[in-house]
TrEMBL record:
InterPro entries named among the record's database cross-references: DinB/YfiT-like (IPR034660), DUF1993 (IPR018531)
Pfam families in the record: DUF1993
Protein's name according to its UniProt entry: DUF1993 domain-containing protein
Length: 174
């Protein structure tokens, strides 16, 4: 039995999740247009006053995915300003993040499972082995932001459901 590589459990997973977010934004744009709603209302929507807006959720999903690859490899992750204010700008950020992720090669993450990753947030500081960092911090954090974007749009009346969250499957019919 062959084990999964760090590449397999990161890059394609992130690309798929970002594709889900891109689909959400398409639905948000169509919903806004159909309901004569200012699209900025979607971009700035949040579930609670102390939570990030839809834009913030997408920015964090982008940052989580690209920065994880940067921390786990010698590949330099691009820096984005977190200044997107429109659905189109958020789509562009997703596209740039996907393009970066798709430029990463499996060999770039070959030794990353044992690579130490140090995280510092204010007074919090910890060092994790690469596989633990990816599996116990990065992937849960990434999916938290994808799921929260889903919830924000549902709360705004956008018709997104579980199948939208799961993404499109490339499965041959039986």
């Amino acid at each position: 039995m062959q084990s999964l590589s760090m590449y397999q459990i990161s890059v394609p997973v992130f690309v798929r999740g970002l594709g889900v977010l891109a689909g959400y934004l398409e639905k948000a744009e169509a919903h806004a247009k159909a309901g004569n709603i200012d699209p900025a209302e979607m971009v700035n929507a949040r579930l609670a006053p102390d939570m990030l807006s839809l834009a913030g959720q997408i920015q964090r999903a982008s940052d989580t995915s690209k920065n994880a690859i940067g921390r786990l490899s010698a590949v330099q992750a691009p820096r984005f300003e977190d200044n997107e204010t429109t659905l189109a700008e958020l789509q562009e950020r997703i596209a740039k993040t996907i393009a970066f992720l798709e430029s990463v090669q499996p060999q770039d993450l070959q030794e990353s499972a044992t690579h130490p990753v140090t995280l510092t947030f204010g007074k919090f500081k910890t060092t994790l082995q690469g596989d633990a960092y990816l599996l116990t911090f990065t992937l849960p954090n990434f999916f938290f932001h994808v799921a929260t974007a889903h919830a924000i749009l549902r709360n705004k009346g956008v018709a997104v459901g579980k199948l939208d969250y799961l993404g499109h499957f490339d499965i041959e019919p039986a």
